[in-house]
Amino acid sequence: MPFRPPLFAADATAGAAGAGSLGSGSGGRQLARLVRLPNLLIMALCLLLVRACLLLPEAPWRQVLAPGFGLLLLSALCIGAAGYIINDYYDVKIDAINRPGRLVVGRGINRRHAMLAHLVLSGLGVGLGMLLSPLLGLVNLGSALLLWGYSARFKRVALVGNVSIATLTAALVLLPELQLHTGRSAVWGYALAAFLLTLVREIVKDVEDMRGDAQHECRTLPLVWGVPRTKWVAGFFLACLALLVAGAVFNALLMSHRYALGLWLLALVLAPLLALAAALRRADQRRHFARLSTWCKAIMLAGVLSMLGLV
Predict the structure, then answer these.
(1) Are 206 and 222 in contact (CB under 8 A)?
(2) Is 1.10.600 the CATH classification of the domain at 9-310?
């Protein structure tokens, strides 16, 4: 699961053999898997809804889809894709144990080409950010460096890697606000929710990936504290998130009278969070934690779509 140091002779051979496969019909699928295309699409949707629903709810689409936003979107997706690539670059040995069917780097894509793609995409993302504003450029630069550090080291350390990814997810939600400076408070609530849910999911994934992590001297939370204590930690952050969502439901239904938003949050975010907490308490097998990880992604998508209720 963690991003790992480069592989050596065996990787060079595998990479050379896999490089040619990009010319085959499966090359596009390999590339889409490498950059996690579905995740990038969700990132794009999140940025669009933050801008359209939270920050510019009454603006015409011509203003929402301004060229500056297009550059912001492209820069964020470049940083995200680069992060996924460097993740796989460092994680080949562990993924060979935890997710052997999903290996791309070293099998379908040459490792040198993967590193080159990472550097080009990171540079493009930072450059586009600088073109928009020094602040956005620095945020993108910090994100790229944090992703590299996470891949090479932080992911090995209990909670540090989890908090790093959660922080990057929250920063993604805040990017449109950092560009527009509207001062709207709702975006900060969504950023906090994204931070907490991502933190829960990353901890759950650590439990799911214990076998490969243990064989490569990682010090993730379940390996340091054990699974029972790790479940309590995840449960604490899950409870914080549930309280945050419950407050949003209360505000939507009883204070601001946004009934569609309140019912959406209640039925598709809060209720699943409570069910997730119950399932987390019972989980004791790898497949259980894999299911919980997928569950977290579904809740996150429901949370993103809830922004439509603010228009």
Answers:
(1) yes
(2) yes
